[in-house]
Amino acid sequence: MSTRSSTSRASPWSPRSRRSSGPISRARTTCTRPPARRGPPYRLRLLQPRRRLHPRPGDGDPLIPVETPRRPDTYYGLSKCFGEDLAQLYWEKHGIETVSVRIGSCFPEPTSVRMLSIWMSPADGARLFHAALTAENVGHTVVNGSSQNTRQWLDLTSARALGYEPQDDSEQYAGKLIAEQGELDPDNPAHSSLGGPFLTDPPVWPY
So where does this one cross the membrane (predicted)? Predict the structure, then answer.
């Protein structure tokens, strides 16, 4: 019996995964150095795809705020936590403003039932990034990035404080996706956590 399927993918904690997260962290550090030398005013925008072990909210539960303790599910996710801490350091030490955007899933349309809850349309993405670049006195602000979805998991309070007003909702795609894939299974870790399939079947690179 072939064992290739069980060994060809990198564990999220494997040396190969650790090597891949190193360049990401170094790149983030390199990007912040020139503005620090020039000094304020200067603003960075960090895009932070969500890779977390945090459980999704159930029916009637409050949405997940940005203040929730970070729980990275891979070394790639860990590098995103590093990026936010680095942004906080450069704000406090050099006065460089950063908006860290924790993106749910930004695609033309959602491709899974799970994505219905974290989807951000490209148009709403543009609205959020415009708000992040034009709001005043942001210091280092962390925001969730998604549309205003009927099945929403992410709290957009801090994003709205920047002036972000999402216009789109994934619900128009729900019927087709549920008919094809079924409803979410709360006992399936790929369905019950923000990290989704990255918890159960992480890709080889750069995770």
Answer: none
